[in-house]
Amino acid sequence: MNRVLASLRSYWNGKGRTAMADTQDQDDKWIARLTPGPGTDIERLLQMPLGLDVWERNPNTLVVRADESQLRELERRRLATVERHCTVREYLFEKESEEEEPQE
To answer: Residue 35: CB partners within 8 Å, gap ≥ 6?
Structure first.
């Protein structure tokens, strides 16, 4: 999980953006679980030019980072059931809080 957190930090910090722009972008990006809809499967979702950042691939689901508009389009086209877990900003805050807690 630390690798994912480090990857996210380098992604956002490496863009040369201001902190305000980063915060706005992170609010619009979601960590979500996609379950393919009827008539589609994981392979088909991966082959489509959807612009998703795939974090994890499982036999029946994908965990992705995506814009709200991308997730709405998946739902509109009934390509996948979307479970929004949290925004990227919430995820980073949660992980940073976990790292600050003393380990027993």
So the answer is: 60, 61, 80, 81, 83
In a domain, 15, yes or no: no
Range of the domain at 39: 2-10+22-100
Model confidence, pTM: 0.69
Cα angle 5-9-22, degrees, rounded to a multiple of 5: 130
| Overall domain count for the chain | 1
- Long-range contacts of range 50-58, CB-CB < 8 Å, 24 or more positions apart? 50/74, 55/4, 55/31
pLDDT of 31 > 90? The answer is yes
What is the domain-level CATH number for residue 36? Answer: 3.30.70
CB 57 within 8 A of CB 42: yes
